[in-house]
Specification:
With about 100 residues, the chain is mainly α. The protein is built from six helices and no strands. Helix content is about 80%, strand content about 0%.
Length: about 100
């Protein structure tokens, strides 16, 4: 299925219902997505939802997977940097922020 459509549905669930309602759908949506762009956006959304709940360690793999699918998308690299900063890994955060990690 079109990952962009699934992303929009998940995003609406977050806004209209709750973060938990969004998270409840994301594993299924990620598996269903057939395009890298949509899948990366879904993975990033999952990371953002976990970040919002202050579940930083859990969010990191989702941001990393999004980055692996679309390394040209700087937002994913910046999200990895931000999570490292929130976890106190300032050197790692700086390296990701400056584009020295991949």
């Amino acid at each position: 299925r079109d990952g962009q459509v699934l992303f929009l549905d998940a995003r609406l669930r977050w806004r209209m219902e709750s973060i938990d309602a969004c998270i409840a759908k994301l594993d299924s949506y990620i598996e269903q997505a057939t395009d890298d762009t949509g899948k990366a956006r879904l993975l990033n959304l999952y990371g953002c939802a976990l970040d919002e709940q202050k579940r930083y360690q859990e969010s990191l793999p989702y941001f990393e997977r999004a980055y692996q699918l679309q390394p040209e998308e700087s937002m994913y690299r910046k999200n990895i940097a931000e999570i490292h900063e929130k976890m106190g890994n300032t050197d790692e955060a700086k390296a990701w922020s400056e584009g020295r990690k991949n």
